[in-house]
Amino acid sequence: MSSLIRTGPDRRPHTASRPSTPRIAAARTRLEIAMYFRERDSVIFSFLFPIIMLGIFAVAFSEQIGPDEGPIDFAQYFLPGMVASGIALVSFQTMALSLAIEREDGTLKRLRGTPMPPMAYFLGKIGMILVVGVAQIALLLAVAALAFGAELPTEPDRWLTFAWCYALGTAAGTVLGIAFSSVPRSAKSASAVVVGPLIILQFISGVFFVYTDLPSWLQNIASVFPLKWTAQGMRSVFLPDHFEDVEVSGSWQHGSTALVLAVWLILGLIVCVRTFRWRRRDDG
Amino acid sequence: MTEPTDTAIRVRGLRKSYAGVPAVDGLDLDVRTGEVFALLGPNGAGKTTTVEILEGYRHRDAGDVSVLGHDPQSAGAGWRKRIGIVLQSSGGHDEITVEELVGHFAGYYPGARDPDEVIAAVGLDEKRRTRARHLSGGQRRRLDVALGILGHPALLFLDEPTTGFDPEARREFWALITSLADGGTTIILTTHYLDEAEHLADRLGVITAGRIVALDTPDRLGGRDQDQAIVGWTEDGVPRTARTSEPTALVAELSARLGAEVPALTVTRPTLEDVYLRLIDGAATTASAHPSPSTARSTIQPADPQEPVPS
Ligand SMILES: Nc1ncnc2c1ncn2[C@@H]1O[C@H](COP(=O)(O)OP(=O)(O)OP(=O)(O)O)[C@@H](O)[C@H]1O
Ligand SMILES: [Mg+2]
Asked: Does some domain include residue B62?
């Protein structure tokens, strides 16, 4: 360690431009993406997970599924579920786990001691989730189409549905992840507290099982949560039209889907603003 | 709020309890602009609690606090630009390399120091491309220091900054702090190393049980400058010591009695550590301890080799 006299108070500042929220948010996005992909666990258990699951479904079940007038391959049938699962993993699980860990290990506390605008921190997380999420879905669709012969829709209105389902599902998952990050009492318990409920939710929301095969009381529980609705929205994108008739309500329910996801998004935002903490609960 | 230019930190009657037990119990403190102030005190004395209240992290129960003219509890980003913080323990950003992290944090401050210079200044040049996870404990601590000084703070908080430093790194750190102080940075640090406090601090505060029990320059703390000297010698094969305010007279008397060369003669003043331990002991027995040095002229007693001399 040596003298820093050369950088006296009147020395020209090193940074050419003054820090601004968009600039810091962009820098945080780059840092978050680096942190995400350098953590091998997160790459396997949130980024590659839906792709691995799709592969297992495609290899394990060679028969077809669906109504008599036109059954389809398992890989095609479970593709929308895997898209919905990917959204939940990258937005909700990544957010809840990373925040719980960053609160515990002092990352958040350190950041709070700098002039970094809090908004730039959240924008950085959102930027990371968008980049990682889009990359994941692109990879998932490419693998589904090229390796497992799934057919991707060509109609623009289906892709429009995909876009708003993806955006609303990711936004809701992200804010709910932030809100849920305060639930685990410690980083040690975080993965159990976050991953456990999400696995259960995936089983009852039509991600791993055919939703209509579930008992109606389980369907009712699942309908409260967002995952069921993103999965259903994605089925309307990736399944043939005649599958609409075998939905529980006999319809894709786009209106209800948008409404439920928007309500969760707003609820999540309110909880975030009221409960967000930069420090551990027990830290003075 | 008008900003007092000569006082960087002003604390009056600060109180903070945890579950009804006071951690900071009526603490008063003034730190002048440009000085290096060290807080000493045993584990659990309330140093970190005090410092983190000053940094704006913890909320006080009572008292007035002004840091750079603002109440840290409600101060904003403009105030945070002017302070630098090295927490007692911090972590995170494990997968990011030293140069990435320092470069990134530099983007938070309008007048940041050159990241390369800061990395060199804390001696991490050879670890630039190492991820934080793979740094040793002392290297991680250096990274904390780098991030603390990066924003060119007017006021720097250092909570036990040299924990885990090897002796050479500690000397280099002292040089770094001295250069920051020479550049006009106000520094408040806590430490358990009394040599560090003595070397760096313009003034010291000793805190026990949440109160300041002594506050002065290192050479005057606890009446150290008026303290009795300790004279040691060997007589009839027995080591002896004496505490006296007139060591020269005693040495002359010994010399007359035992011959020109008094065997194993030493004359010492109490070290900062002696004074510190006495202050801590005194505070433990009397509530408002500020023991004044005894004025007894000279006492001679046989030394007990098992026991340290001044107590
Ligand atoms: N978050 C907390 N919750 C409960 N008690 C706390 C908390 N932080 C500190 N204390 C208590 O307050 C007292 C002062 O703690 P503090 O951390 O300020 O001590 P310190 O002087 O920094 O000690 P050290 O030299 O060990 O760092 C201790 O008795 C400690 O147990
Ligand atoms: Mg402490």
From this structure: yes
